[in-house]
Amino acid sequence: MNPSFLILKALANVLPISLDSLINPDVSPEDEGAGQMKMLYCSCPSEMRETLLHHTQETMRELTELSEKFETN
After folding, report:
1. For residue 62, how far is the Cα from the chain centroid?
2. What's the CA angle centered on 45, arms 57 and 63, to 5 degrees?
3. Which residue of 1, 54, 59, 66 has the lowest C-beta tally within 10 Å?
4. Directed axis angle between helix 49-72 and helix 29-43, to 10°?
């Protein structure tokens, strides 16, 4: 394995950033957020992932409704 990759991987494990953002710093904020969501999902115990997904979907719905209320006012 490439030593540079091992260093980047170690940094990604210690820092609150994804390995993708270390390799490609020009990642869009949307892609970075999606990568963080994926890391959270993968870090969750496998038996709890469905619960995490359900709560994330519900939170997204609530935030969408809240945003729509702000737009109408």
Report:
1. 19
2. 20
3. 1
4. 150
